[in-house]
Specification:
alpha/beta, Trna Endonuclease, Chain: A, domain 1, 5 helices, 29% strand, 201 residues
């Protein structure tokens, strides 16, 4: 079964994926009292706002509110889209804003986001070129645990484009997700081939 194209999923499916990305990030950060909701309406003094994904957690005995906007775009995200999210943060008294998109971000959008503490996350299709390690050929063997592991890997990968790193910081799939896939793969190799292997953590 082939992985779906990120641009072909429905808006609701994309928002649900964004929710999973944030849940994975929260688990990796071991956030306290983390609660996350899809498609909520929040009242403010200047009106009611629809939020694609809304989350709360506790830090330093304070409830932190997170607003996440999900943009399934083909063209680069502009500064204006980030500014709209910033205005929602101010109106709702939220502490953190996250914009997740299927496209690149314009340089002005990245600069504005960094200035206002907003995270910009880019989601891409997961690309995999399979090489059967057991047969040393490119023929796909359904019993090959490496191929089985590839099928378990989430079909999408997400990067934080506002992280202060030389290369994009991958936030999804998390290290915990990948470690579980590797654990299952190594157990299958041991069961089927009688070989113990280990990978660096």
């Amino acid at each position: 079964m082939e992985h779906p194209d990120i641009l072909n999923v429905s808006p609701t499916e994309f928002e649900e994926l964004c929710l999973e990305i944030l849940k994975s990030y929260a688990e990796a950060e071991k956030l306290t009292d983390f609660v996350i909701t899809h498609n909520v309406k929040l009242p403010a003094a200047d009106g009611t706002y629809q939020i694609d994904v809304y989350a709360e957690f506790t830090a330093m005995r304070t409830k932190i509110k997170v607003l996440c906007e999900c943009k399934r775009y083909k063209s680069p995200v502009s500064r204006d889209k980030v500014a709209i999210l910033h205005r929602k943060l101010e109106s709702l008294g939220a502490q953190k804003g996250i914009l997740i998109s299927t496209s690149q971000f314009q340089s002005g959008a990245i600069q504005y986001a960094k200035e206002h503490g907003i995270a910009l996350i880019r989601v891409e299709n997961y690309k995999f070129i399979h090489l059967s390690y057991s047969s040393e050929s490119q023929e796909i063997n359904d019993k090959d645990p490496f191929y089985g592991a590839e099928k378990q890997i989430p079909p999408f990968v997400a990067y934080d484009d506002t992280a202060d790193t030389e290369t994009p910081h991958k936030v999804y799939p998390s290290a915990a997700i990948m470690q579980e896939i590797i654990r299952e793969m190594t157990q299958q190799i041991k069961d089927e081939w009688g070989v113990d292997i280990s990978f660096p953590k």
